[in-house]
Amino acid sequence: MRQARRVPLVAGNWKMHTTYEEALRLAGVFRERLDGVDGVECALIPPFPWIVPVAERLSGSTLVLGAQNCATIDEGALTGEVSARMLAPFCRYVIVGHSERRHQLGESDEMVAAKLQAALRNGLAPILCVGELLEERDQGIAEATVERQLLHALRNVQADQVRRLVIAYEPVWAIGTGRPATPEDAQAMARFIRQWVEARFGAALADAVRVQYGGSVNARNAEAFLRLPDVDGALVGGASLDVEQFSQIVRLAGEVGRSEHGVTAVDSR
Ligand code: PEP
C-alpha cells in the first residue's frame, strides 16, 4: 500500500500555549534547525494571534503553517470565529475536528463537515482528526466510530479534493496522556482508514491520501509510528513545543521519507 510519493507530514499543534515572544523564538529556532530537511513536510500550527508573525518568521523557508480551527462559514456575524478565507493567505493547513473541540467544546460531526468544506473551498488542506474514546475502544466500536466520523466529514467531498486531505488518526485516550496507541493498533486503524477511502474514492486516491498518527508522540516513540506502512507522519501536540523533541521527530520522518519513499522536500511543494 506504500506509495512512493506520499511525503510524510509532521505537524506541531501548539494548542493554546506560548506567549508572543515564545512563539517567535520557537519559529526562529525551528527555522534554523529544520529549514530544508528533505523527505518530510513540516508544519507549525500556532494559536491564531501568532499566525501572522510566525508566517513572517518562516517566510522563504520550507516550513509551512497551519491553523488549529476555522469557522464553518467564510464571513459574517459570528463573533470570535476566524474563517478559512482569513487564514488562507498565511496557512497551508487547518486542523478540523480535533478531539478537544469535539469533546470539550461540543463540535458535532456536522460542524466538522462544514469546516472541512470551508477549508477546501478556500484552498486550505484540512487535517481531519478522527479517533475513538477509550470506552468506544473497550466496547469494540473504535472502527465504527472512526467510520462514522469519516462518513460525515467526507460526505460532500469530491474525488479531486481528496488528494489535499490529510487524515489524522488520534485516539482520544492517547492525546496528552503520555499513553500512545501501540504501533500495531495505529497501523490497523490507519489501514482501515485507507481502505475506507479506497472503497469510497478508489485505489489511486487511497494511495495518495496521507494518514497521520497523533497521540503522545515524542522523540522516543516516534520512529515506530513513522515506519508504519500506512502512517505518513505525525500530528504532535505536547512534544511540538520542545525544540529538541520536535526537531528530532521531523528529522526522523525525513529519514523515513527519504529511505522508504524516495521523496525529497521538493515533492510536497
Ligand atoms: C494533539 O493535540 O493532536 C496531540 C496529539 O497531542 P499530544 O501529542 O500532546 O498527545
Structural commentary:
This protein has 269 residues and is α/β, with parallel strands linked by helices. The protein has one domain: Alpha-Beta Barrel (TIM Barrel), CATH 3.20.20. 43% of the residues lie in helices and 14% in strands. Helix 3 links the parallel strand 3 and strand 4 (93-96). The protein binds phosphoenolpyruvate. Phosphoenolpyruvate is lined by residues 13, 15, 170, 175-176, 214-217, 235-239. Residues 13, 15, 170, 175-176, 214-217, 235-239 line the site of phosphoenolpyruvate.
The side-by-side strand order for the widest beta sheet comes to 1-2-3-4-5-6-7-8
Q: Helical content, roughly?
A: 40-55%
| Beta-strand share of residues | 5-15%
CATH level 3 topology? TIM Barrel
- Evaluate the radius of gyration: 17 Å
Largest sheet: 8 strands, parallel, barrel
Q: Average pLDDT, to the nearest integer?
A: 95
Going by CATH, what is the homologous superfamily?
Aldolase class I
**What compounds sit in this structure?**
phosphoenolpyruvate
CATH architecture: Alpha-Beta Barrel
Oligomer category:
single chain
Tell me the number of strands: 8
The secondary structure category is alpha/beta
The domain count comes to 1
Shape: globular
The H/E string reads: EHEHEHEHHEHHHEHHEHEH
Distance between the termini: 22 Å
The count of helical stretches stands at 12
Low-confidence region ranges: 265-269
- Per CATH, the class reads Alpha Beta
